[in-house]
Amino acid sequence: MMLNHREYKNFREGMSVKDVIEENQFTWPKLVVKLNKKVVWPEEYADTKLAASDDLEVIHLLGGG
Asked: Does residue 65 sit within a domain?
């Protein structure tokens, strides 16, 4: 599995998006998560299971002016 364009060496069969976010301590309040280029909403993180062939992106949103 790829995480942010790098091989995710801690991947285990049956992992969810939520597991990856917690393991990598992605704690920023505004996250955009894309699985195979499709948006995954926060309420779907726990139920969205990952496969070895998946491409997961976790993007931190920043605000400013």
From this structure: no
What is the domain count for the chain? 1
**Which residues form the domain of 17?**
2-60
Could you give the CA distance from residue 11 to residue 39 in angstroms, rounded to a whole number?
20
Q: CA-to-CA distance for 40 and 26, rounded, in angstroms? A: 15
pTM exceeding the 0.70 threshold for the entire prediction: yes
Ordered per-residue pLDDT tens for the chain, 65 residues:
999 999 999 999 999 999 999 999 998 889 999 999 999 999 999 999 999 999 999 999 887 76
Residue 33 lies in a domain: yes
